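User: Can you help me understand a structure? I only have the sequence.
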Amino acid sequence: MKIVIFLLMFAVLIMGDTTLKIATYNVENLFDLGNDTSRYPEYIPNGPSEWNDKNYKIKLKNISQVIKDMDADIIGLQEIGSLEALKDLRFALKQRGLYYQYYKIADSKNSSVKVAILSKIPFLYSKEISVTSSNDHRNILETKFKIGQKELYIYVNHWKSKSGPESMRIIYAKTLMERIKQIGYDKNIIVLGDFNSDYEEYIKFVRKRELNDTDGITGINHILGTIKQTKRAAETTYEEGSFYNLWYDTDDESRYSYLFKGKRETPDNILVSQSLLKKKDIYYKNDTITNFYRDYLFKKKVVQRWEISRGKVKKHRGIGYSDHLAVTADFVVKN
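Assistant: Let's start by predicting it. Here is the structure, written out as tokens:
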């Protein structure tokens, strides 16, 4: 590992500033063929739903194609079923010529799906942050990098779905902010993942009484402070202790990672601390936030998710990718 770090530092010295592409991607239920009991019924191996070696290999092939085409330096993943599934995905990527040497999964809790990280760059450590003791709340994955003498923290999230009210997502946001208060708001911090929250959740959810059990307060907007900065990155002003949602740094029509009944939604977000908006040691490169759009990921203007039949017995069709689009952004590391 020391040799890799030295070579990376040497490359930065020789080449000057470098650019890192950082991504988040919900891969939609990547389960291996193991016999763990926490998985969803339609993913029981070799059962009537036909989650078998053939369909598993197709799923790995399709998801690895997306990640290979994206070619991010660091990618946060959601809905990884197990460490074995993560390793199988790494192997599928290696076969395509893309090698992520460094990886970690938040698998200490027996939740059905988990968050993980793949990186071309070594990290100092990666650890889980417990939100609650319940399996209803997946752990957050904290990873610390040191590139040259520059520190970078990345937090991979997968918050509670809209099957639960906003109070369940606020628990994630408060846990996250408690941890960030410990390391310091002035650090280079990227918070990414599937928040199951729109970048303007405070506007969209207020009309849904089954979700609004918090008097209009949201985790992503109020607790993380993204409601305070709603202009393009080049125009935004400093807000201490708040995060900036990169979705504001692109055009309205491009702000989506998910389509629900034809409507564009942004459950997947990349948030940055205030230090990453300054043009200092590491910073966000303006105008680079984007969903990963490719024609093959769509079918009749709908995201081509992994297809499972809706009959009495749900069966895998061996077609599709994920119901989410990946989201990427570029960051500059100064020499």
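Now, to help you interpret it: The two ends are 21 Å apart (CA to CA). The longest helix spans residues 53-70. Let me know which part you'd like to focus on.
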